[in-house]
Design brief:
This protein is an alpha/beta fold. It is about 40% helix and about 10% strand. Helix 2 crosses helix 4 and helix 3 packs across helix 4. It starts with a helix and ends in an 11-residue tail after the last helix.
Length: about 250
């Protein structure tokens, strides 16, 4: 099954937040801290799951809640970013299950390039790469503040492919958010979703190849055909994946 996804590819593009790392708890803490400073820390942070920008999320929150203090959105973005960087310093952060093994298989077995595509600003991304010893893993990285239009616009994916000398058909993408998947599929790139618990598969574009809870189902299976995968899955009850609904 997975062999078909990787055949003919030259590079694998990874989103960062929610895909390579489970950073949602840190972002929730950052938004909550800022909301508390505005007089209301009890806010619904579901918009974070969609992959919207910090500015867009604050527009939603300001529309939904009557905060005691009024602060311009650019200032709220700056405060949120500061709180997130503080959380990075104070709390543990780990890569998604199976990530390191997958990187090994991609680089050593399939000889593919790996690229990081993040909507976050460069200073945040660099901090995460340093914290998790990821600096030497990716062949190229590009961040949201390095393009004119962030996800869901496809620009960041198109620019990355151009910088790497790739066509869209050369690329397989791993994303998690609706915004990110919209970006990669608008760039006409094959996309696999790392699916969280909040967003339904039905909310994603129908062109998504498949849904996985993490990277573990891929380990040791990148060169298996669909028939070989089904046989192995029948013999191993721990192999779990979501399939794209009709």
């Amino acid at each position: 099954m997975y062999k078909e996804y990787f055949e003919g590819k030259k590079a694998i593009f990874f989103d960062l937040d929610g895909t390579v790392i489970d950073s949602l708890p840190l972002w929730e803490r950052a938004y909550t801290k800022v909301a508390e400073s505005l007089g209301n820390g009890d806010v619904n942070l579901t918009p974070i799951h969609t992959g919207s920008t910090t500015s867009e999320i604050w527009k939603i929150l300001l529309g939904d809640y009557d905060f005691e203090y009024k602060i311009p959105i650019p200032d709220l973005v700056t405060q949120t970013k500061k709180e997130y960087l503080n959380a990075l310093n104070e709390y543990p952060l780990e890569v998604m299950e199976g990530f390191w093994s997958l990187i090994h298989d991609l680089k050593e077995k399939l000889k593919l390039k790996v690229v990081l595509i993040s909507n976050s600003d460069r200073d945040i991304v660099n901090k995460i790469l340093e914290k998790l010893n990821l600096n030497d893993i990716f062949d190229f990285t590009i961040c949201g503040d390095e393009v004119k239009n962030r996800k869901p616009n496809p620009e960041i994916y198109n620019v990355a492919a151009s910088k790497m000398g790739l066509n869209y058909t050369d690329v397989l993408v791993f994303e998690d958010s609706i915004s990110g998947v919209t970006s990669s599929t608008k760039a006409h790139m094959d996309t696999i979703v790392i699916l969280g618990e909040v967003i339904s598969p039905n909310m994603y574009p129908k062109s998504v190849l498949t849904f996985l809870s993490n990277f573990e189902p891929l380990i040791g299976n990148l060169e298996l055909t669909y028939e070989q995968h089904i046989k192995k899955a029948a013999e191993d009850p721990e192999i779990a994946e979501y399939t794209n609904p009709d």
